[in-house]
Amino acid sequence: MTTSGQSGTSGFWTNASVRGLVGDADPVAAVVDAARSVVVAALDEGWDGPPYDPIVLADRLHVPVVPRDDVFDARLVAVGKTGVQIEYNPNRPPGRRRFSLAHEIAHLLFPDHRELTRNREKTNRAAGDDWQLEVLCNLAAAEFVIPLGSFRELAGETFELRDLLGLRRRFDVSTEAILLRAAHLHDGPVAVFAASRTEPGGSTGRYRVDYTVSPGGWDPTISLGAVLVDSVVGECTAIGYTSHADAEQWPGSSSELRIDAVGIPPYPGHRLPRVVGLLHPAAPVGYSRLRPVYLVGDAVAPRGSGVRLVVHIVNDRARQWRGGFAASLRATWPIAATDFTAWVDEDRDRLRLGAVHMTRLDADLWAAALVAQAGYGPSTRPRVRYSALQTALVEVAGWAADHSASVHMPRIGTGQAGGSWSIIEDLVDNEMCAHRVPVTVYDLPNQRMPNSQGVFDLQGPAPA
Predict the structure, then answer these.
(1) Which residues contact 120 (CB under 8 A, 6 or more apart)?
(2) What pLDDT was estimated at residue 460?
(3) Those residues with Cβ within 8 angstroms of residue 338's Cβ, 6 or more apart along the chain or in another chain
(4) Which of 110, 175, 245, 388 could form a disulfide with 232 if both were Cys (CB 3.0 to 4.6 A apart)?
């Protein structure tokens, strides 16, 4: 993911809360990563959807949620000496209510949220550079409302703003959230932008670019904080108003852009709506985005040449491999299993969730065992631990990048571990493909393609 908050423009972020959380890092990427960590932990604990209920998420974070008719949308309120609670208007439409709650949960990502809450209670508006905090909380809220693994059907939709707005109504989610999720799943050059009127009560038509997010291999290189003058963005003067331009030149961009924009609710205390939308190159551009490649075959015999890494999941009690893909790998490459057992016997503490063990199988062939399954045998819920898998994938991606290796795997985590491939596919995409690590996924002939499962009674003798 590329964003307009990267190191070259990070000095633009002046808000003390933002700088306190991320320092000199890219605030957009840092906040999205923090929100996804919250999501992954909640999915491990059984949070499910759609719709994904933010009240359940708040409960998992031990934050009370209180309905109040006199609250406009939702707000975070300091309680006692150390606590906070979220108050919300239960009479708002469900989609707006969920996003408002998710936005307030996003404030919890910032260490000084109690102090900010007291300040906001006095003014009830985004003053000064508070808009920067609101922008980041909206981005985090989008991750909470449409978390990774959800709405993968968007990948097959026509990528036009009108169609996506129709899907927003169908799924009852916010416009900002549906655009960000759809862009992540789209295989083409696209970026999502957000802009706001520089004079909240004025009528000059000048808009500030608050962020751009480009999930794929194309970067529009818009200058963060750039001011748009005489853009079609200024036509979105009411919530739901849309505008379009076949070609506009935006500050920082080396080429013209095609613009599709829509008005959405304004910042707290502001009158005029914010504007979000899609950016495309106005003329064809070179574009390359890695995605997992799917083949029918067997991951124990990975295709291709060069350094190849076979990745699979084991559980945190698996001194030996007796079932699932691990047994097939052991039968083909016995050294993988014996080396793993020796590694565990040297120090049992190594067998912890999130750990990775690497074994060289042949001159250019390696295997990585990812400890991302909690125990084995019957279970009322999946045994895969997405947070541990994410940690392990990051380590494996680093190794693969250092060794110019391709990664090969079955649909890890969907067998005896009982996980959702939609979630795991997103983790693989985010932690590997987005970092230019090529991944091939293998399905055996006539294998049932797992996607997502609910409650499980996992049978299976053996630790794997």
Answers:
(1) 75, 76, 268
(2) 38
(3) none
(4) 245
Q: Take residue 46 and report the two structure tokens written for it.
A: 């059984």
For residue 109, the tally of other CB atoms under 10 A from its CB is 18
Kindly state the tokens that stand for 106: 């996003």
- Structure token pair of residue 57: 């998420």
Q: Which amino acid is at 167?
A: L
pLDDT digits (tens, 9 = 90+) for 352-378: 999 999 999 999 999 999 999 999 888
Q: How far apart are the first and last CA of the chain?
A: 34
Answer for the pair 260, 232: CB distance below 8 angstroms, yes or no.
no
Least-confidence region, from 215-229, 251-265, 274-288, 450-464? 450-464
Q: Which two tokens stand for residue 186?
A: 């789209």
How far, in Å, CA of 127 to CA of 419, rounded? Answer: 44
* Gap between the Cα atoms of 88 and 79, Å rounded: 15
No. of helices (H) and no. of strands (E), the chain: 12, 16
Assigned token pair, 257: 């852009």
Q: Which residue has the tokens 């997405």?
A: 386
Identify whether the C-beta of residue 424 lies closer than 8 Å to the C-beta of residue 413. yes
Give the pLDDT band of residue 254 (cuts 50, 70, 90): confident
Per residue in 15-34, pLDDT (tens digit) is 888 888 887 788 988 999 99
Cα separation, 213 vs 190, whole angstroms: 9
92 three-class SS: coil
Q: What amino acid occupies position 286?
A: G
Note the helical H segments in 172-301. 175-185
Burial (CB count <10 Å: 0-12, 13-18, 19+), residue 73: middle
CA distances from 293 to 102, 215, 272, 406 (A): 34, 18, 45, 11
Pairwise CA distance, residues 276 & 258, whole Å: 14
Instruction: Summarize pLDDT for 180-236 with one digit per residue, the tens.
Output: 998 888 888 999 999 998 765 554 578 999 999 988 778 898 887 889 988 999 999
CB-based contacts of 321, cutoff 8 Å, min separation 6: 314, 327, 329, 330, 337, 340, 463, 464
Amino acid at 424: I
Using DSSP, state whether 86 is helix, strand or coil: strand
